[in-house]
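To whoever is on call:

I kicked off a structure prediction for a single chain this morning and the downstream step that reads the tokens threw a length-mismatch warning. I double-checked the sequence; it's 73 residues and nothing unusual in it as far as I can see. Pasting both halves so you can look.
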Amino acid sequence: MTAAVGRNEPCSCGSGKKYKHCCALKAGKTPWGTRVVVGLVALMLLIGAIVMLRSIDNLNDEPTGPRGATFGR
């Protein structure tokens, strides 16, 4: 098992930099591709929710059958 690297110790990746100026900074960053995908999924969910709410609102306003049709005897 690898021991934890201190912030002021040399980075374990072999760059020669201190850990706080090398891999410690990389750990908190999210790649741009992931951000774009998450943003697009959130946008699609928002648009889907708006469409769904509008269609529910339209169901209450308009009859669903053809004009003049009777639903029962």
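Update from on-call: the warning came from a stale cache, not from the record. Cleared it. Sanity check on the structure: The mean pLDDT is 78.
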